[in-house]
Amino acid sequence: MAQIQQLGLPASLPHWVPQLLWSLGTIAAAYLVGHLIKRFIAPRLVLLASRTKGEWDDVIIDEIQRRVPWWSLLIGAWLALGHWPALGADSTALDLAHKFLFVVAGLSVTAACVATTSRLVRLYGAILAPGLPLTGLTQNLLTIFVSIVGGLVVLRGIGVEITPMLTAMGVGGLAVALALQEPLGNLFAGFFLSMAGHIRVGDFIRLENGLDGYVVDFNWRSARIRQLANNIIIVPNLKLSQATVLNFQLPDQGLSVPVQLGVDYASDLAHVERVTTEVGREVMKEVEGGVPDHDPFILYSEFGDSSINFTVILRGREYVSQYLVKHEFIKRLHARYKTEGIEIPFPQRTLSTRGPLPIATSGGIRSDGE
């Protein structure tokens, strides 16, 4: 009756009407306060965070300010339950309402923790562990771990005993592991591939069957490898962990670029070496993908059928750099050899025979002079 008089409502209204109005007013006021905090206070916190060196505080404040109105709404609903004294402290309905709000709030906080953790790992993972690049698999496992911890905390908060659940999960997990050996094998193989750091996202690798490409990502079942032709190769994690793999970017991504050449037997080899290395240095300094501080050199290898053969050793910054480096080197060297009078001979072979050569006639084959 006192609440009805305070609100100026007719005395004939049911007693629960003012309680409902007070509850709605509390929820609306809490929601309004949340919006005011997001509108006026949160921007100041964002500004303060932007002045610090690290980005962790920016991430945390950003995730919190996005959820402030929702959390204020939950707080308002929690306070609104105090306007229903008729339900009694031991009321089942009041207890269920409190548990429901706790579960919703717990799940919301867990979602915020998952989002914050994922963003922080993306920001600092490569810095804290350069050899352990982030993959879709590692981020998903982290998300699952944080979600499970949050879920267990929520269950514990509403009075659910989680010890028997953990025991049942352990026994059930053994049965599931036996039934799902292949999927779990791929899952753990992908996890260990990511952790070992021998094959990293972004590395250019070649498999033992000759297929090669850039590692795009690992997921729970397979690795994705993008070829230079922009095709995707799907390799199960378990097979990749057992395969012989050539990683072109370990211990570093630079690689030697050998170019096979040959010059005429009459060439001055010292002159050939000088001209060839000059062109190589020019290419290293001017062509994108070359290594400017690398000093090219040549190694004579054999007396070929029509030329003296040798190998020029250039260097590229990464695997794909070799194509442009070779292209420019061959083009420039060909023009320079023309200027210097150095001949690259056509393949030819000298045949030596004993006695006169046979001459074909209409009646058959006869020797010269017969």
Please provide a written account of the structure:
This protein folds into three domains: 2-128, no CATH class; 182-247, SH3 type barrels; 255-340, Alpha-Beta Plaits (2-Layer Sandwich), CATH 3.30.70.100. It contains ten helices and ten strands. It has helices at residues 2-7, 16-50, 56-80, 92-128, 136-157, 163-179, 181-196, 237-242, 269-286, 321-340; strands at 204-206, 212-218, 222-226, 232-236, 246-247, 255-263, 297-303, 308-316, 358-361, 364-367. A hairpin with a 3-residue loop joins strand 2 (212-218) and strand 3. The radius of gyration is 38 Å and the shape is elongated. It starts with a helix and ends with a strand. The model has no long low-confidence stretch (mean pLDDT 79).
What would the keywords be for this entry?
10 strands; Alpha-Beta Plaits; three-stranded antiparallel sheet; 3 domains; alpha+beta; 10 helices; SH3 type barrels; five-stranded antiparallel sheet; 370 residues
